[in-house]
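Have a think about this chain, tokens included, and walk me through the fold.
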Amino acid sequence: MFCACSFQHGALPGTDAASCTSPWWNGAYAHRYRVDTTAPAGYTLQIDATAALATSFTSTRNDVRVVVDHATELDRILTGSMLEVKVPPTGQLWIYTGTISPTSPPADPANVYLFAESFETFPAGDNVTARFDAQPPTEWSVVVDGGNHIYHAQGTYRHPAAIQGMTLADGEIRARVRWGPAGGQQHNGLAARGSSMDIATMDGFVGQLQADVQHTRLAEYTDGISPPAELLVQNFTVERARWYAMRLRFVGDALELNIDGSTTLATTKSGSNGQLVGIYAHDTDVDYDDIIVRPLMQPEPTVTLGPDEMCSGR
């Protein structure tokens, strides 16, 4: 359908509104915002959707939708005010909002990120070798936690789990991580830039929370025998039975470990030329869930939201 559009913001000087004759994706939606970005096709774009959320009609925000050329709806992930969507090969992105009874939005993480795994499709006891090179394979398995499927590792020594078939030079890996009641040192977290994530030859960077010494650290493994060289360490109270949101970024020589939305550690270190990405635990009893990976550019590509365009032909 076509709408007469009233621009609440950005109207031409001396006017109260401007006419709009471009197609409107769905006449049940009252508002839309043009999204302009410098991000390349295939990039997982992060959009501050605060302005669009202000015109949402629902508490669930299910009426916040992302559409290409007013025709094709895309999967999107909305966390707080941050909207994430994969940039399509061609076409103009728009955010539509403002309908009372929306259908459920498409929100499959596999269509938003380079990699996404929630473990829901794997039965209890599966060690998920279809997705991870989990070592030792007998000490990793899916368990059911209140109906939610999660990935559990328990045992002494090293437990690397590289994502199968993935090499990534610049990006970020995120996961929810929970420390269990057992384990010894319980040094658990995320790994990146490994040339090897075999137990005997492991190298590359790790971002961890260390339960035994109550620290968080960025460190670098250089072989399968020696402890990792600590690049940056600080005190951190690690609580068992609590889920932490962990994110490890690696772009150029820059490393950044983020815990629960706050940048905890950031440093630079050159020398690692590996590209394996995954999760890593040591002397452990730990759970992982909702693992995602996306490419990363620094600085992030620019994103601009256009004015609030309202459909007055509804």
The mean pLDDT is 92.
